[in-house]
Design goal:
Distance between the termini: 34 Å
Order of helices and strands: HHHHHHHHHEEHH
Number of strands: 2
Helix content: 55-70%
Largest sheet: 2 strands, antiparallel
Radius of gyration: 23 Å
Strand content: under 5%
Shape: globular
Oligomer: single chain
Length: 306
Amino acid sequence: MAIKENDEILIREKDQNIQNILKRYSYYVEQAVNYGTHILLWPYKEDRPELNVIKLYLRYFLDMLDAVSVLIKAGSAEPAKSLLRSAFEINLSIHFIYDKNTSLRADAFWVVEKINQLKELEKMNPKGKAYKQAKNNFSKESIINFGSGINGKNIRAQIKEVEEYLKSPELQSAVDEYNRIKQGKSGKIYWYNLFDGVDSIESMARVLNKYTFYEILYRHWSKAVHGNNIMKDKIYFDRDGNSYLVPLRHPVHLAWTAKMACNLAINTFGYYVQRSYPERIEEYNNWQAEFTGDYEIDLGHEYITG
């Protein structure tokens, strides 16, 4: 039997005026994403191998902002915060790769990515120690029948492929650096730890002179990601002091959400074009001037306040 939502706690249906406002908010984020799809497909350059990594990051960035546009249109502000947080991390990563040691940091990304992939494959290799440990852990939790359906021969072939990739001569500096870092570091290793890198996203923000954004925005968004922000903007009181839960999809603060998404897009796209395609910077600046003029006016005011 189909169950209808309780509209006191979930606002799926909104009046036409509210819907129109949300569509307008979402429109600007969609326009940013649309432009991003074009610059993402600008041609690769043989003398810029780091573009392989940068374009992967940019593609992921567009994915986050596209999802934000969908949530804005649905009137769902809170879940968008975790996506904006991810988008900001991507922005930092792109800046950090280009900050210095660019080709080495791009290589570090591939090496760490492949080593992590190798670790996951080892957990699925029935002939390996990691598999036995993983199977034991899963059996204690009784979640799934770990190992069922695994093709050991296929997994071992994938392991060999990754191992051969990590032997590539052009990656040996990054492999050696990873092993050096591993000797003096416990816990997980991230690509940005290598080659005179940093130990955390917070440190990355400091190095890139983006710590103010980190402190004000990233920490705020992180509360939504980690499930700690369960009170702020979730309860309201009437004039008599009675408390109520704020409904899901309560469409407030969404002009601010859309503006933050657009600001991140401008900052990310501008740096990407400046560093990867400087010969097309005038083309980009023309688009940015028109786009910024539109969204900064329209998103400068919250038309839905309660």
